[in-house]
Amino acid sequence: MEETRIVNATWDVSTFKYRIEGQGLTRMLSGMRDAKLIGIKCSKCGTVYLPGSFYCRKCHIEIDEAIEVGDHGEVMTYTVGYADVRGNPLEEPRVSPMVKFDGCDAWVMGALEGVKPEDVHVGMRVKVAWAEERTGSLQDMQYFIPE
Ligand SMILES: [Zn+2]
Asked: I need a labelling partner for 76 at 20 to 30 A (CA). Which of 16, 112, 113, 119 fits?
């Protein structure tokens, strides 16, 4: 049975600190230097996380099996932005898909280039456009382009 908890409180978002789990992000970034995506696979259920988690959220066990994930994948959902975060209109609409890479169960968000918003669809095949000079940072994965 699922349980929902309601916590009545004031949340000061400006002091929130993001906690990076284990070595998953470090592994992913070092792989990105070589234009590879490295996830972590659960040995029990086979779920592949990217960035890798130190535990399986389904099995509740520690996991540490590094596995290469494809840099091609499928658009699972997407949004089209017509304004920036301040509400100023963009010169060109911006497509932001959630992509499920081949051999991976996680969805990764990014920008999609090289296609008109009206031509984007769920199930569309895309691939990573890697930066030519990679440094082992999130910017190594520039954006997605149609496959
Ligand atoms: Zn599992």
From this structure: 16
